[in-house]
Amino acid sequence: MATDRADLLRQHGIQVTAQRLAVLSAVSTQPHITADSVAEVVRGEIGAISLQSVYHALGVLAAAGLIRRIQPSGSPALFEDRVGDNHHHLICRVCGRVVDVDCATGAAPCLSAGDEQGFEVDEAEVAYWGRCPDCLAQDRVPAKRSRQPI
Amino acid sequence: MATDRADLLRQHGIQVTAQRLAVLSAVSTQPHITADSVAEVVRGEIGAISLQSVYHALGVLAAAGLIRRIQPSGSPALFEDRVGDNHHHLICRVCGRVVDVDCATGAAPCLSAGDEQGFEVDEAEVAYWGRCPDCLAQDRVPAKRSRQPI
DNA sequence: TCCAGACATTGGAGTCATTCAAATATTTAA
DNA sequence: TTAAATATTTGAATGACTCCAATGTCTGGA
Questions:
Q1: Coil, helix or strand at residue A108
Q2: pTM (two decimals)
C-alpha cells in the first residue's frame, strides 16, 4: 500500500518522501479535504509537518495529476484523489458540503464549450450550487456570505 | 440612464446612493471586472470611494441579482452585469482572460446534475479552462501557479 | 556503500483579497 | 423637516496562501 504509493510517485518522476506519501494518503481518507485538514491527518500519521510542505506537496501532486484541486468560491481549496474521470460537484450553500456527481451528459458536452472562440480547452469544471438534503430538511437557508469548508 | 439605474435599484428595494450607482455603472463597462478595478473606475466617475464600500455595494447588487460574481480559482472575484441568461466562461490559464460562452446544450443539462442526490440545485456554474487564442499563437504556457486577473 | 548534487522541508515573513466593528454621514419615509 | 433606517468610511484584522533562504533528505553514480 505504502509501496504502491511510493511507486506511483516514482512513476510520475516525483521524489518520494514521507511527507508526500502521507499527504497523498491523507487526501484519500476523504472525498474532499482542505490543506489544513490534510496537515492534521498527516500529523496524526507521521508526527509533524509544516503547512508549507503540505501546500507544496499538494501542489506537486496536483501538477502531476495524482490529485485534483477544486476551489469552490468562498471556501478554501479542496483536494480530491478521484481523478481521471469526468465528474463534477454539488455544493451546499448552507453547510458547504461537497459531493461528487458523475457527468450526466457523457463526455462530449463537458469537454466542449460549443463555441470555443479559438480557445484550446483542457478542462471543464462544473459546480452545481444549492442546498443539501440535510439543510433542506431543516429548512436552513444560506447566510449572507457564507459557507464553511467541509 | 442614471435614472434608469436608480429606478432599477429602487425596484429591487435597494437604497440609492451615488456609490452604488457608480459601482453598477462600473461593472457594466467591462464584461468582467475585479473589485479593485471597480474602485478605480468609480473613482474616475465620482471622485472617491473606499474599497470596503465597493465590496459592500457589489455584495448588495449581487445578492439582488443585478450582477453576478464569478470566482475563477487563483484569481480575485470577477463581477459581470450579464445576468439572467445561462452563460458560462472560458478562462485562459496563461493570461487569465475570461470570455463568455453561451450554454451550448440549452437550459436543461445546465440546470440539472442528472443525479442530484437530494440537493435542491439553483445554479450551475461552468468554467472551461485552457489557453486563449493569443496565448496559443505565442505558444505561451501556464506558469506553475498563475493566472493574473484581467 | 558512500558521496555529491539535486531536490524537499522548514521557519519566518509577507501578500492579497476580503471581512469586521464602530463612528460618521446620507437617504428616505412620515 | 425630521427622525429613523441604512450607507459609507476608517482602521484593523483575518484566512489562505506564497516567497525566500537555510537546513535537511533522497537518489543515482562511483
A1: helix
A2: 0.89
Residue B3 phi, psi (nearest 5): -65, -40
Instruction: Using an 8 Å CB-CB cutoff, list chain B residues near A121.
Output: 90, 128-130
Provide the 3-class DSSP secondary structure of residue B2.
helix
User: Please, which residues have CB within 8 angstroms of residue B17's CB and are 6 or more apart in sequence?
Assistant: none
Let me know: does A117 contact B99? Beta carbons within 8 Å: yes
Residues A16 and A6 sit within 8 Å (Cβ to Cβ): yes
Q: Do A117 and B101 touch (CB under 8 A)?
A: yes
**Alpha-carbon distance A67 to A61, whole Å?**
6
Query: How far apart, in whole angstroms, are the C-alpha atoms of residue A134 and residue A97?
Result: 10
**For A51-63, what is each residue's pLDDT tens digit?**
999 999 999 999 9
Note the CA–C1' distance, B150 to D18, in angstroms.
20
